[in-house]
Amino acid sequence: MIEKEPLISIIILNYNAGSLLLECVESIFNSNYKNLEVIVVDNVSKDNSHKICKEKFANIILIENKENLGYCGGNNVGIEHANGEFLVILNPDVIVDPDWLNQLLSAFRKYGDGLYQPKILATTDHSTIISAGNMIQLFGFGFSRGKGEKDIGQYEKDEEVGYASGTCLFSSLEIFRKIGNFDSYLFAYHDDLDLCWRGRLKGIKSFYVHNSIIYHPLEGYSFKWNSFKFFLMERNRLYCLQKNFSRKTILKMLPSLILVDIAVTLFYLKKGFVSAKIKANLDILRNLSTISKNHNLIQKNRTVSDDELIKKFTNKMEVPQWVIEKENNNFLNKIFEKLSWFSRLWFK
Asked: Are 39 and 65 in contact (CB under 8 A)?
């Protein structure tokens, strides 16, 4: 008797994604893997894309939030409604290759409990890499490995990476329960980094699966530089550092962290968003009690030391020039590399 494939729940968080949502869901139902459920969680879209999607694909599960819960809160709602043994967190502007799910499930069965992401290529140019696994820089910055590079076979093997991209994140429901789902304090940005960081503290690794392929716009439908995004990215970076590192590690790195903070402030000043940096710092100060509470809970349940953890963290960020101009990127990386080298002297 042939064993039935496990049910996989695919959670798509929607916010005014328009026709991209329809294209995404259609590609999912064209997958070779058939035992799946699609859960669309809508964060109060005004374009009715979620309702149009439900009309076209009656078998999807549609959940309409009464308020915008952000990436973290919205996806957590989807996770709570998932019936599958496995689940995927998927962006609504993604097109999936027909064999994507088979390859992710196969990798999970091969490598065991972990958080997995596919190779992500550009929608309009299938030869340009969006992500071949994401990486964490020592001071809490996240970036996509290989972003902007031509796909010429340089990432043609499965590998452990710093963290799996939230654009498409695959694991078992049991693993999500063990880690604790997304941290709703973050709202959006650094959410996938934080989830995988917390997972790694419990011995749960993140993997890049080279032969699972999806397609994503070179910059997502919601991408744009603005003050709110700068605020969230910086606040959440600081939050993750203070929550996920031990206090002993923070003390070891404190001189470097102060200098990094100055460098980031100068970068924000140059970009015209210094008010967002100030707002981020103030928000951290206002929420120190919450941060301390969450920190204590995480540190109590961790099984992996920071000495072991940071072996997978990088010293510099590698980002395309259209994200951060070459001059600014070089400026930051010179500082990051030297301070990272200095900070690592205090670890085993």
From this structure: no
